[in-house]
Please model this.
Amino acid sequence: MSLSRKQLLKIMGGTAVAAGMPLGAAEASASQAPTRKRDVCIVGGGASGTYTAMRLRQLGKSVLLVERSDRLGGHTETHRDPVTGDTTEIGVVLWRDLPAVRGYFKRLGVPVEVFSGHESKPPKYADFRTGAPVNAPASPPDLMTSYFKVLKKYPYLATGYDLPDPVPAELYMPFAKFAAKHGLEALVPLLVRVMMGFGDLLTLPTLYVMKSFDIDMVSRLLNGGSFLTTKSGNNSELYEKAATHLDDDVLLNAELIRVNRSRDLVTIRVGTPQGLQTILAKKIVFTAPPTQRNLAPFDLDRTERTLFSRFRPHFYYTGLVRLPGVPDTMTVQNLGSTPPFHMPALPALYHIQSSGVPGLHHVKYGSTVPLTYRQVRANIHADIKRLVAAGTIPATTVKLSTLKSHSPYGMSVSADDIANGFYRRLNALQGRNRTFYNGAAFHAHDSSLLWQFTERLLPNLT
Ligand SMILES: Cc1cc2nc3c(=O)[nH]c(=O)nc-3n(C[C@H](O)[C@H](O)[C@H](O)COP(=O)(O)OP(=O)(O)OC[C@H]3O[C@@H](n4cnc5c(N)ncnc54)[C@H](O)[C@@H]3O)c2cc1C
Model:
């Protein structure tokens, strides 16, 4: 895979290439650009990339963190209401209460507290295809303990995708079949909340459900374990502090142009607002979603190309909406009217929920196909109008004040790929060609678990 001229032009608007310099000349110019030498170059400044950079620095390694957007934090995104100054999270809300998590916040000087949630009434359920109310299915009292018992059979899921060979069939069975086998159909409404952004849960291999609604989380829910959030109500503070700490070792608005990995060195060419830069690193850690676009600058070999081409993304959007006349404390969750699973039909809004900021409601939208912002906006309006027409929520006007895409999200592979040892081969890539991998696709969509995963990766990087 390599970048097309069009992609390169887009990356480097305003630079030599945009000024008409041929592609080869622009690359040659990159090779003359300032060169930075580092022990490790990290691609992607979200949860896992930022933590990796911070910890490697702490362990005495020189690092450079390359982030495509204009800030660190990835899915952590805080909205400040211009009217009240209040904040609300349209991305990451909470972390698991673990010593390592507390330690990380402490090192960066970000006070945390135990998460208690916003005040909101019990949710109303409706099928957003019609807007009509749906009765939540009754949950058997032992639902969670039954699920916990099954999870206990697969302790290795807690540390990554270290699956045995052969892979147990339950792990790649579609979740609907697994749920029917264990009498766990009533888990779906809760899973829809925990696994927003993962598409149709009924057809998804069960492995992804077990990785997302994992043994530690279920045990916390069963035993009253706690979660943490920032005292300031501004979760982005963690990443603002990390950016200050890493200072010159972060390149923002930076786009990879070429990554060449030789026996002794990784040469990385990056387009930045300050011009082209060259990084010479001993190792590279890739933490961005492993999509074709993100991997295009790499000199991938056949094994890497074949494996990465198997990943399929899902699509997830979050935003805030003003709905005058709808009580701030009202939550409406989308549930399909069809028993026994009540899985909502996607694409659709997952829910409308209290944001904690007066007059603003969270909206979360999921799709199995990519959509434009315009389509998502129109669909959100249509979903809310159906809820009004059916009398599920009071008459209102809809004003979407923020909409963000968190796509690509929930990268998954097929049941056949899982059965045929995809994750064994993926794990074998760690360290190959001086390249290491971190991030949700390699473990779980959970910041705390990714920080634990990073701790296990660090010895290979130092
Ligand atoms: C709405 C929402 C709510 C969530 N809530 C929680 C929660 O409460 N608690 C929790 O633990 N988890 C939560 N998660 C999940 C969690 O945020 C993710 O699992 C975690 O952020 C994944 O970390 P990551 O490092 O893999 O990816 P990200 O945090 O997404 O970081 C990837 C980074 O790479 C950058 N990037 C992408 N491509 C490139 C490229 N080519 N070059 C350079 N940089 C690139 C991106 O801009 C991004 O900054 C939530 C996710 C979403 C979407």
The radius of gyration is 23 Å. The pocket of flavin-adenine dinucleotide is lined by residues 43-49, 66-69, 74-75, 91-95, 197, 256, 287-288, 294, 316, 318, 406, 439-440, 445-448, 450 (CB under 6 Å).
